[in-house]
Amino acid sequence: MLRAQAGELGVDLGERQLTKLLAYERLLEERAVSTGLVAKGDVGRIRVRHVLDSLRAVAPLAGARDAYDLGSGAGLPGIVVAVSLPGLRVGLVDSRRRRVAFLELAVAELGLSNAGVLGVRAETLTEPVDACLARAFAPAPRAWELAEPLLRPEGRLLYFAGRGERPEDLRTRTPVLEVLSTPVLESAGPLVIMARQ
Q1: How far is residue 105 from each of residues 19, 116, 187, measured CA to CA in Å?
Q2: H or E stretch at 6
Q3: pTM of this structure
Q4: Which residues, in sequence order, are bridge partners of residue 151?
Q5: When comparing pLDDT for 116 and 176, which is higher?
Q6: Most buried of 48, 69, 88, 114 (most Cβ within 10 A)?
Q7: Is the dihedral of CA 10, 122, 41, 36 positive or negative?
Q8: Residue 173: what pLDDT?
Q9: What CA–CA distance (Å, rounded) separates 171 from 29?
Q10: Could you tell me which residues come within 8 angstroms of residue 30 by beta carbon, excluding any fewer than 6 positions away?
Q11: Strand, helix or coil at 69?
């Protein structure tokens, strides 16, 4: 079922990727909920609300070599992206110790050699990347302010807008390149791609 759902989002997952994503779903249910990294009300809908939502970033990252997941929290979307794109190096950025501990556990248990945990604030990063991801991190203008200096010239920020955020409002405050809506996930806000113009 997960393979079919991912396919509706334009993501083709192999057996190894499916196995790791299912293991990650269990890890979120068993460990992230009890530590407050995922809301208790999300139990039973972790796949739709978190995993499938995070998969929306995979297709727009085609061709990217490296990325930061800013404010990674429980690894959403960074771990999902790292599992789905094994050729992409993903830095999971979060400064809170409890979140860092969970991210380290997840990376180790899933055997993600292309993901690394960076226990620092996003403001302290200096190494440039092809892309940044921001989901439940900061309002769009602030997310762009932090991401822009980290991006290589052709780099992009993939910003997961909230359900109530209107793309036309974001266009006036940030350099929006494209807005992707996902009919498969009616509860999700648009995925907004920002780039220097």
Answers
A1: 17, 11, 29
A2: helix 2-8
A3: 0.94
A4: 129
A5: 116
A6: 69
A7: positive
A8: 73
A9: 36
A10: none
A11: strand
Respond yes or no on whether the N-terminal peptide bond of residue 86 is cis (omega within 30° of 0). no
What is the 3-class SS of 9-53, one letter each residue? CCCCCCHHHHHHHHHHHHHHHHHHCCCCCCCHHHCCCHHHHHHHH
State the pLDDT at residue 186.
Answer: 57
The CATH homologous superfamily of the domain defined by 2-195:
Vaccinia Virus protein VP39 (3.40.50.150)
Joined together, the tokens standing for residue 78 give 């960074």
Instruction: Note the pLDDT of residue 15.
Output: 97
> What DSSP line would sit under 148-171, residue for residue?
GGGEEEEEEEEEE--TT--HHHHH
The structural domains of the chain, with segments of one domain joined by +, span 2-195
Per-residue pLDDT for 107 more than 70?
Answer: yes
The dihedrals phi and psi of 86, each to the nearest 5 degrees, come to: -65, -15
| Average pLDDT, integer, range 125-151 | 95
Q: What is the phi/psi pair of residue 138, to 5°?
A: -165, 165
Nearest to 105 by CA among 186, 30, 161: 30
How confident is the model at residue 187, as a pLDDT? Answer: 63
For the record, the structure tokens of 103 come out as: 């991210």
Confidence band for 185, pLDDT divided at 50, 70 and 90: low
126: pLDDT confidence band, cut at 50, 70 and 90? very high
- Angle separating helix axes 15-27 and 97-110, nearest 10 degrees: 150
